[in-house]
């Protein structure tokens, strides 16, 4: 199954439903209080059904929902390719208020029974609801790639990412994940209130475009790097993760174990490499 949603090279518009207007009262210390309009990032539930049966609820920012679900199913090991999706549509029996917030997926086959994941996935946690420590453990293969990236290219990427974040520009309230070439060309970027949702959307896009594994791209995330982000990068075959923020101890350990270059605190004049620095050249 392929979605007719080619990636745009120009900054994309804000997806419908991704933002909402609200009244805000700034409280300065040395000026009078004036209420004004503001724009907020939307956080809303997306009910995911599998063959008409409820599977999970994802708390997300509306926009690119099909990619989010595709990436989620891939990263959960339920599908291995977008062609395993027979259909992904809004069910006709959903109430009007729910119509845009329910997606029903029909698969050729499920590679893993998803019953253990029947839970509410909030926007800040990508592995919440796992039933045991053993279920969190990742079973995969090390990432193999000849990708190398000059430091100067990496240092320029945060500014390029910021220029491709329309929802963040309006709200300041979302995370972003972006794929770049080793030359620094933006391939795809997605935003969401959940950092793991943003990455699921990017991976879902890549899967529908037939680009997984992503051994020829690097991943840039707008915040910190946690275990689940590295886990998703391993599943997608991404050889290098760069982040504006810090990595966690488990993220570093997982990157080291599976051959992923992990860069944190990425700035125009500096960066730290925590695992496999050989892919970052002078």
UniProtKB/TrEMBL annotation:
<dbReference type="GO" id="GO:0016783">
    <property type="term" value="F:sulfurtransferase activity"/>
</dbReference>
<keyword id="KW-0963">Cytoplasm</keyword>
<keyword id="KW-0501">Molybdenum cofactor biosynthesis</keyword>
<comment type="similarity">
    <text>Belongs to the FdhD family.</text>
</comment>
<dbReference type="Pfam" id="PF02634">
    <property type="entry name" value="FdhD-NarQ"/>
</dbReference>
<dbReference type="GO" id="GO:0006777">
    <property type="term" value="P:Mo-molybdopterin cofactor biosynthetic process"/>
</dbReference>
<dbReference type="GO" id="GO:0005737">
    <property type="term" value="C:cytoplasm"/>
</dbReference>
<dbReference type="GO" id="GO:0097163">
    <property type="term" value="F:sulfur carrier activity"/>
</dbReference>
<dbReference type="InterPro" id="IPR016193">
    <property type="entry name" value="Cytidine_deaminase-like"/>
</dbReference>
<feature type="region of interest" description="Disordered">
    <location>
        <begin position="1"/>
        <end position="23"/>
    </location>
</feature>
<feature type="active site" description="Cysteine persulfide intermediate">
    <location>
        <position position="125"/>
    </location>
</feature>
<protein>
    <recommendedName>
        <fullName>Sulfur carrier protein FdhD</fullName>
    </recommendedName>
</protein>
<dbReference type="InterPro" id="IPR003786">
    <property type="entry name" value="FdhD"/>
</dbReference>
<comment type="function">
    <text>Required for formate dehydrogenase (FDH) activity. Acts as a sulfur carrier protein that transfers sulfur from IscS to the molybdenum cofactor prior to its insertion into FDH.</text>
</comment>
